[in-house]
C-alpha cells in the first residue's frame, strides 16, 4: 500500500469595510444601515486525499454521499460473471463492482486465467475489481476442499510460529502458494488494472486456518508479511489492500486485536452476517477505526436498503454474496436498491481511461 498524499486547500479571506456618511463614521450598530466593521470571513479547510489509484481516489470522492453496488462471483471460475449477470436480469443494471476468487479446488485453480480475463474485461468496462482468495493451508496440500482438511483446517501454535518465521520450510511453502496468484495479479498490473485485494478475509473468523489469532504475532502478522512480500518483493503495486473483519459481538475489540496498522491497508471492510443487520454501532466502529480511510461492506447476504445507506453514508461499496443475495432479498428489494439515487451501478461509474 502506498502512503496517501494529502493536498490541503486553505483559503482565508478577511474583509474590513467602513461606511461613511457626510465624511463621518456611521454610528449605526451591527445590522444597522451603516454596517460597522465586519468580522473576517474564513472558508473551512478542505482536505482532498490523493493516491496513486484512480479507483481508490473514487472511493474517497464518493464517501459520505454514495455507495457502489457490487456482487461476488463465487465458484466455478469457469463462469466468472454469472452472478453479475443475475443482478442485471433482476434490475436492468450491472453492478459497479465485480468480484472474483482464486479459490482452492483443482478445477477452479485450472480456471484462474478465465477469472482474470473477466477481471480485465470488467475493469475496461469501468467496474471496480475486487479479488479475494480462499487459500489452502500451507501445512497441508493444494488443491483442497472447503472442509477440515482444507480451507477450514487448523494450524498448531508451533506450525503458526514456523509459518510466520521468514525463510522456514512452511513459510517457503506458503510463499510458493502466494507466487501462484502473484502470476495472475502481475497480468492485471501489466494491463493497468487496479485490484481491491481482500486476502485473509474475516480475520476474526476462527473457522479459517489463517484467522482467529488475535494480537501482534497472530493473524495480523501473517497479513503484514503477505503485504510486504507481494508489494516489496513481487512488486505488485496495483493492489489496493482491503482489511476485512466480520460483525461478531466482539467487533469493538476485534478491530484492534486484528488491525495490521494503517500502513497495511487502504480500505476497512466489514462482513455483515450476524443477523442484527446494519446497526449504527457497527458503522460507528468502522468509521472510527478507519480514521478517514474508506469503509465498505465487504460481504453480505441481506442487502442494506437505500435508506440505511443514506443514514450511514460512508459505506463506499457493498458486495452481496453470490446466491445468498437472491435467497435473502426479494427481486423487488434488489431492484429498488440498485435504482436508488444514492447507489452507483456500472452505468454511473466514471470509467478508468
From TrEMBL:
<dbReference type="Pfam" id="PF02156">
    <property type="entry name" value="Glyco_hydro_26"/>
</dbReference>
<keyword id="KW-0378">Hydrolase</keyword>
<dbReference type="InterPro" id="IPR022790">
    <property type="entry name" value="GH26_dom"/>
</dbReference>
<protein>
    <submittedName>
        <fullName>Mannan endo-1,4-beta-mannosidase</fullName>
    </submittedName>
</protein>
<feature type="domain" description="GH26">
    <location>
        <begin position="50"/>
        <end position="347"/>
    </location>
</feature>
<dbReference type="InterPro" id="IPR017853">
    <property type="entry name" value="GH"/>
</dbReference>
<keyword id="KW-0326">Glycosidase</keyword>
<dbReference type="GO" id="GO:0016985">
    <property type="term" value="F:mannan endo-1,4-beta-mannosidase activity"/>
</dbReference>
<comment type="similarity">
    <text>Belongs to the glycosyl hydrolase 26 family.</text>
</comment>
<feature type="signal peptide">
    <location>
        <begin position="1"/>
        <end position="19"/>
    </location>
</feature>
<feature type="active site" description="Nucleophile">
    <location>
        <position position="299"/>
    </location>
</feature>
<dbReference type="GO" id="GO:0006080">
    <property type="term" value="P:substituted mannan metabolic process"/>
</dbReference>
<dbReference type="InterPro" id="IPR000805">
    <property type="entry name" value="Glyco_hydro_26"/>
</dbReference>
<feature type="active site" description="Proton donor">
    <location>
        <position position="202"/>
    </location>
</feature>
<keyword id="KW-0732">Signal</keyword>
Amino acid at each position: 500500500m502506498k502512503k496517501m498524499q494529502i493536498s490541503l486547500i486553505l483559503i482565508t479571506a478577511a474583509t474590513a469595510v467602513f461606511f461613511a456618511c457626510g465624511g463621518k463614521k456611521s454610528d449605526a450598530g451591527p445590522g444597522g444601515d451603516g454596517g460597522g466593521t465586519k468580522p473576517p470571513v474564513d472558508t473551512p479547510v478542505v482536505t482532498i486525499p490523493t493516491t496513486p489509484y484512480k479507483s481508490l481516489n473514487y472511493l474517497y470522492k464518493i464517501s459520505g454521499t454514495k455507495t457502489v453496488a457490487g456482487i461476488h462471483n463465487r465458484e466455478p471460475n469457469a463462469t466468472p460473471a454469472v452472478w453479475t449477470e443475475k443482478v442485471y436480469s433482476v434490475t436492468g443494471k450491472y453492478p459497479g463492482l465485480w468480484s472474483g476468487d482464486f479459490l482452492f479446488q483443482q478445477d477452479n485453480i485450472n480456471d484462474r486465467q478465465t477469472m482474470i480475463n473477466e477481471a480485465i474485461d470488467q475493469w475496461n468496462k469501468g467496474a471496480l475489481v475486487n479479488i479475494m482468495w480462499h487459500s489452502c493451508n500451507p501445512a497441508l496440500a493444494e488443491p483442497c476442499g472447503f472442509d477440515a482438511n482444507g480451507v477450514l483446517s487448523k494450524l498448531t501454535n508451533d506450525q503458526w510460529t514456523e509459518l510466520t518465521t521468514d525463510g522456514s520450510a512452511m513459510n517457503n511453502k506458503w510463499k510458493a502458494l502466494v507466487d501462484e496468484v502473484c502470476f495472475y495479479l502481475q497480468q492485471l498490473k501489466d494491463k493497468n488494472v487496479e485490484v481491491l485485494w481482500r486476502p485473509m478475509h474475516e480475520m476474526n473468523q476462527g473457522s479459517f486456518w489463517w484467522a482467529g489469532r488475535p494480537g501482534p504475532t497472530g493473524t495480523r502478522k501473517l497479513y503484514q508479511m503477505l503485504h510486504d512480500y507481494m508489494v516489496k518483493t513481487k512488486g505488485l503495486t496495483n493492489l489496493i489492500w482491503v482489511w476485512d473483519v466480520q460483525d461478531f459481538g466482539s467487533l469493538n475489540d476485534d478491530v484492534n486485536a486484528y488491525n495490521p496498522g494503517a500502513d497495511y491497508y487502504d480500505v476497512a471492510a466489514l462482513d455483515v452476517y450476524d443477523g442484527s443487520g446494519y446497526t449504527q454501532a457497527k458503522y460507528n466502529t468502522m468509521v472510527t477505526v478507519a480514521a478517514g480511510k474508506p469503509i465498505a461492506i465487504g460481504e453480505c447476504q441481506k442487502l442494506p436498503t437505500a435508506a440505511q445507506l443514506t443514514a450511514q453514508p460512508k459505506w463506499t461499496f457493498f458486495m452481496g454474496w453470490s446466491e445468498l443475495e437472491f435467497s435473502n432479498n426479494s427481486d423487488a428489494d434488489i431492484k429498488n436498491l440498485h435504482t436508488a439515487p444514492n447507489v452507483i451501478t456500472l452505468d454511473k461509474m466514471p470509467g478508468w481511461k
